C-alpha cells in the first residue's frame, strides 16, 4: 500500500527541517521533500531601519556564520556610501572571513559529521554525537574543539567577540589590528595546520569505505556556482560569480554584483519556507545549480595557495575534474580549511595588516547596494535599497542554503530511493537520509531569515495523500 | 528549583533551539575544552547536536534558545516543560524574544505576501504544506511556560553558560548576574 514516511527532526544540521518521503504501492520511493519549518521575516521588518544598522541586525540571522552576514552587509553598505574602502581594511575583513571558514568547517566536520563518519551511520543514537565521539575517539574530538577554538579565538582577537561582533562597519572596520593580537594568532597557526592535515589524512583513508553513500548522496548532474577572481582563482570575500555547466564548461561570469538578478531568479516551494533560487537563463526548475565547498572547487580553477592546490590536484586526480556527489563536500571542506590557514599566514605576515587607516567615512551617495561573498556554505547575497535619508525601503537576501534547495530535495529523494526497498525502513536508513542533508552543511538558521529551521521527520502517506504513519528515529 | 537534584550518575541534559539564530548554541560550544570535562558528567538526550527525534521524559536540565514563534515551537515548549526538572531560558531571544519579535508589528499575511508572492519570479503562492503556521507574535519563553533560570545575552558569554551548567550539576541555583548583560 502506498505510504509516506516523515522524519520530524533533521538533526546535526544548522537549523530546523523535516523530510517527507512518499512510497508507491510497491513500497518504492516515488518522491521526497525537505521542509524548512521556520520563517523570521528579516527582508520585511528591516524596512525603515537606517542602512548602517543592517550589519548588526542581519548578523542575527545566523550565529554559526554571523561574519558572513556582517561582511555581505557591510559590502552592500560600502556601495550605498559609494566608497572604496582602505586596502588594510579589505585585508582585515578577509582575515576575519578566513578565521570564520576555519571555525565553521571545523564545526561541520568534527562536531556534526564525524559521528557519522567515525562511529558509523548505523551507530546507536545516544552515542552518535560529539560527546559520543569524545568518549570513543577523544583525540579526534580534542582536535575538532581545538581547531574550532582557533578560528573563534582569531575572530575574538580581531573583532572583540566570537559571535555577533560589531567590528566590521560600513566603510571598513572600526579598529586596527594590534601587534599582540597578530602575534598570538600567528603563534597558534602551526597547531591549527597540523590538526587540519591530520583530519585530511583521516578522511582520505576512510573515503573508500563509503561507496554506497558516495553513489547516492545527491550524486546529481547540476551546474555549480562560486566566486572567482578574474583569472579563475577561488575567492571568498570578493570576486565574480562563475557558473560552471554540467559539461564542465564555464557558462557565465557575473562581474557586476548588481547584475546577479539577471542570472538568479527565485521560486516559492509549496512545502517549505525556504525559497528556491534558479539559474534564470535556464528557467525553473531546469536551472538547478549548487553552491558550497564542492561547488567552489568545481567552479574555480585553483585556490591560489600551494598546499591547498596540491591537495586540490590530488582531489581531482582521484575523483575527476567536477565530482558530483555531495558526499565530497566533506573532502572539499578540509581542502578549504588548509587554504584558509595558508591565506591567514600570508595576511598576518603582510606589513600592511597593522596599518591604522582602516575606515572610510561617507553618507548616502547611492540608493542601492549589493554585497556578495562566499559564506562557508556558499554564495551569500545582500541587496538593499534606501531613501535619501538612508532608511531601508526594500531588502532581498539570498542565502547559501537557498541556492542548494532544489538539489537538496533531489538529493534526499535519491538517497531514499537507493536505500528504501519494498517499504523497508530502518533508523540507519533514516540517518542516511539526514546525512545527505548534513553533507551540504545547510544553514537553515540562515535560510529561515525569511523563516525556517531544520529537523527531519519521516511521514508515511497513502497515494491519496492520507497520513498513514509517522516514523521517527529510535528515541 | 529548591528541590532540584540531578539524576544519580550522569545528568540528563537537553538543548532546544526554537526561533533563534543558533548563536547561543555556538556560545555553548565556545566553552571549548570544558565540553570534554562535562562529557563524563552529562548525557545529551535531545537537541540539534544529537539525533533523538522526540523530546524524552525525565530530563534534568533543558537549555532553551530562541523565541516562541510558531505552532511547533509552542508544542515543543509545553512538552519540554512537562519533561524537564529545570528549564533555562538561554539568550535574549528566549528571555525577551529579541530579534524574532521585530516582525511583530507586521501582520503574518503581509509578511508571507512580501516574501513568497512579491519576492519571487515563479510560483507566487505562500507555502503551506507540511510546515507549521507562524504565530501572530513571536514571544519570550516565559510567556508560554514557567522558566526557572534566565541567562540573557546575544549570545550569553561562554563563561556564563559554563557556570550555569556547572552550578546546576552541583544542585545549586545558578548565580550568573555578574557574568551576563543584554545584547
Can you tag this structure with a few keywords?
heterodimer, A: 475 residues, alpha+beta, four-stranded mixed beta sheet, three-stranded antiparallel beta sheet, 16 helices, 18 strands, B: 183 residues, alpha/beta, five-stranded parallel beta sheet, two-stranded antiparallel sheet, 6 helices
Describe this structure in words.
The complex is a heterodimer of chains A (475) and B (183). Chain A has 475 residues and is an alpha+beta fold. Chain A is 43% helix and 18% strand. In chain A, the strands form 7 sheets. In chain A, strands 9-8-7-12 form a 4-stranded mixed sheet, with helices on one face. Chain A has a 3-stranded antiparallel sheet with strand order 1-2-3, with helices on one face. A 3-stranded antiparallel sheet of chain A has the order 13-14-15. In chain A, a hairpin with a 5-residue loop joins strand 2 and strand 3 (29-36). In chain A, helix 4 runs antiparallel to helix 6 (138-159) and helix 6 (138-159) runs antiparallel to helix 7. The radius of gyration of chain A is 22 Å and the shape is globular. Chain B has 183 residues and is of the alpha/beta class. Helix content of chain B is 29%, strand content 21%. Chain B has helices at 23-29, 34-38, 71-83, 92-96, 108-118, 158-169, and strands at residues 11-17, 42-46, 59-65, 68-70, 84-90, 134-139, 149-151. In chain B, strands 2-1-3-5-7 form a 5-stranded parallel sheet. In chain B, strands 4-6 form a two-stranded antiparallel sheet. Chain B is elongated and about 55 Å long. The model of chain B has no long low-confidence stretch (mean pLDDT 93). The chains are: A alpha+beta (475), B alpha/beta (183). The interface between A and B is large, with 79 and 65 residues.
